[in-house]
Amino acid sequence: MKKKYFILLIGLAGLGCFNLNAQQEVTCGEWEKLNVGFDYIFRGIEFPEDQNDIAYAAGESLTYNGDGIVIKTIDGGDTWSQIWFGEDQGLKGISFPTLNTGYVAGWGDYFAKTTDGGATWQQQTPISDVFFYRNMVFKDENNGVITAQTTTGSAVYWTNDGGQTWAEGTGLASVPYQITYVSGDTYFIVTNGGQIQKSIDNGASWTTVFTGTPESLIGIEFYDDMVGVATGDDGVIYKTADGGTTWESQTVGEGSELWRDIAWEDDANKLTLVGTPEQIYESEDGGQTWPIDNTDVSDYYSALYEVLYTSNGTGYIIGSQGVFFRKKCETTLNIDSNLFGQDLSIYPNPMRDILNLRSSTFDIEKVIVHDVLGKQVATILIDDRFASIDLSSLKPGIYLLKISAINTTVIRKVIKK
After folding, report:
1. Which residue range(s) make up the domain with 383?
2. Is 177 helix (H, G, I), strand (E, B) or coil?
3. Of 298, 323, 348, which residue sits at a domain end?
4. How many CB atoms are closer than 10 A to CB 283?
5. By Cβ atoms counted within 10 A, which residue in 200, 284, 303, 358 is the most buried?
6. What is the pTM of this model?
7. Is residue 146 part of a domain?
């Protein structure tokens, strides 16, 4: 299914501003199943700083005490390279608040920070009696929250100095799974006891805002301060539209799916839900219905752990066995031909040998010249806002010029003396 988004662009002409009514059209294809080239269980993927090319992913070779890996792409997922490996240090959490600063954590008491895009890593010890780290989120380079299984139970810790010091958060209700950052000082956590908990002080204290579900809750994400979704076992998700005060349950799929993560494509109505076994469901009405799924093409082999969309609309899903889905988007700019025509100047007309074309705003891409009988007599490639074209080879008479800019064309009549 094709999806298109339109953004109104504003241009400048001379010293005054005018509305170009140009539309940036983003056309997205279907999910393409790929592989990162490393047979690991990848738990998370990050595209820092709202860009579309550089990403990091972290994972583990086994779900229990496996080896760890961090991989990186600089071309939007076309190719991936390994930048870190740790024996018996399988990674369950990754967070990159900036392109160069990132954190990873998992088994083997391993928690580390990079400040050079993964070239080097400095190990830290947020929790002294950790069994393994579960998940973490940093809202910026300094402020972050991490959860763990300890030798005596579960814990949540927070830092405000980039991991130099850590303090234990209070109020954790059960074994924590996913953390998400919303805005300001607000975070949410879901637990295996079916609780949804909220912190409004950067993770220092936690309050239970929802409980009572028999299902474990695995994931949680927010579209904005008000709209959020928690995902869980037995095909159940929970939705809020009031910032987590109330939650409404919904079963998606057959009722046996383990929904792990959710993301919004471009607005609050378009959602993508992923989970185990290799399930991708999509909604276009804010999650009321889920008519789009991959059940006809899924091999039900891998587990899908995270889904996200980058700023250009491209979607990414990552999971076990190195499985990697991508839904690529192409961006074009459509310009109202009437406005391009108003912006375009052609002179002199009538002309003898040289004709000038000028646009104050758009690059003129090509000019095709036809005589009055419709025969094409010349093609000139330009790719600039101004051009002087030599038509001295043409006989005197009337000609029609088909002038193209970005995805639009105007026709002009010229007279050659």
Report:
1. 337-416
2. strand
3. 323
4. 20
5. 303
6. 0.76
7. yes
